[in-house]
Each structure stands twice: as C-alpha cells, then as structure tokens.
Amino acid sequence: MHGNIRIGKDERRAAIMEVAREEFLREGYAAASMSQIAAKVGGSKATLYAYFPSKRDLFFAVVDAESATLMDDLYRVDENGTDVRVTLAAFCRRFISLVLSDEVSAFDRIVIAESVRFPEIGQAAHQFGYKRGIDRMEALMRMGMDAGLLRRADPHTAAEYLLNLCSGHLHKLRQWNILSDVPPAQIEAQIALASAAFLALYGNDEMAAEARTFFG
Questions:
Q1: E-assigned strands of 46-196?
Q2: What is the pLDDT of residues 38-88, one digit of tens each?
Q3: Hey, how many other C-beta atoms are within 10 angstroms of the C-beta on 171?
Q4: How much is the pLDDT for 113?
Q5: Distance between CA atoms of 128 and 115, rounded to whole angstroms?
Q6: Which of 105, 138, 198, 209 has the largest CB neighbor count within 10 A?
Q7: Under 8 Å between Cβ of 202 and 153
Q8: How many other CB atoms sit within 10 Å of the CB of residue 121?
Q9: Strands (DSSP E) found in 42-177
C-alpha cells in the first residue's frame, strides 16, 4: 500500500499499475475492483480514472507493460551466434519456461475464464502478447532465411509454427493444473522435439535432413 505519499505522475501511474496487476491476478478481471485498487494505491477513484478512464484501459496498460518487459528478454538474439540449433534451443527454453511460469499461467487462466463475457481481455492478450510475439519472431525468421539457415517460406507462418510447437502439451497440462511443477527433463524433451520438428520443416537442406533423424 502506498498511502498518501506525494509522488510524481509517472510514479503514481506505475504504482496504480503495480497494484492493479496484483488485483487482476488475485481476483480475475470481472471481480477486480477499481475502488479497491484506488484504496490500495492511496487516493480517490477520481484520481484513478484520471489516469485510466476505465478498467479495460487499466487492464490493457498492465498487459502491455508486462508483455513488453517479457518480450525484450524472450526475443534477445546473440548477434555472434552462428549455430541455429543452439539459438533455436535457447529460444525454446526461454519460451517454454515463460509459458509454464506461475505468472503467465495465472494470466492465461484469466483470459480463458473471462474472455467470453469480456472480449477486451482476449483482445489485450492477442494484441500485446500473441501478435507482438509473432511480429518479433517473424523478423527473426526473415534473418534466418536471408542467412540461408532456413529455407525460403512465409516468415509469419514459420513464426506461428514455432511458437505453437513450443507451447505444446506441457502448456495445456500447466493451464489445467495437472502439472504445477514441470520436471526439467520434460522441458528439455519438449525443447528437443520442438527444435527438431521446426528444423525438419523450415531448416536448410542439411539441417532439415539431420532433424528428420530425430527419434525423441
């Protein structure tokens, strides 16, 4: 709780978003209360609405900020890397670890549970999460194709294929709370399978042939 400490506009906005993020994760979108968020920040609802005209706007801001931070880490590229297999496995490891994390799993459940009644939740997840990720990955696909590491194909389709491979069955088991703590060996097996399946379809001739010998 931030009380009534006098802080600047940027700090106040950040404080609101921090409290709102915790409220959305704990209560879900529908049950999250703008009044409660305002009280925890230490101000009136009028002040809160001066920063965010609606709960929808506040939710979008929270998802946007969270996604931007995660994307910077997820899509970092080693400019000196020459082995696409190593680069691909490293990305798959970061992506799978991210989608299996407690925080992302909690947001996923909010989207699944409430996007039918509140389409804005699905819109936020798509705009700031899935679409933003595909756009970033599409650029990386073009780089790989230009370098001759990947065969020429639609980079958007290739990006979607890789992200769907990485999500895999472990993501579903985590969403359904069948697995709360995924064993590292299962994660490594998913990384190997996703990498091989992707390179078998999109790798250059040499890597595709090698990937097709993968037996899991």
A1: none
A2: 999 988 889 899 999 999 999 999 989 988 888 888 887 665 656 888 889
A3: 21
A4: 87
A5: 15
A6: 198
A7: yes
A8: 25
A9: none
Task: Dig out the tokens for 113 from the structure.
Answer: 């549970």
How much is the pTM? 0.79
Total residue length of the chain? 216
Identity (one letter) of the amino acid at 17?
A: M
Distance, in Å, from the CA atom of 215 to the CA atom of 1, rounded to the nearest integer, reads 53
| Burial class (CB within 10 angstroms; exposed 0-12, middle 13-18, buried 19+) of 158 | buried
Residues near 56 by beta carbon (within 8 Å), at least 6 away in sequence: 120
pLDDT at residue 7, rounded to an integer: 53
Q: What does DSSP assign to residue 214?
A: -
The widest CA-to-CA distance across the chain, in whole angstroms, is 64
**Rounded to an integer, what is the distance from CA 59 to the centroid of its chain?**
15
Which residues does the chain have with pLDDT short of 50? Answer: 1-6
What tokens appear for 155 in the block?
């980079």
Please state whether 148 falls in left (phi above 0), alpha (psi between -120 and 50) or beta.
left
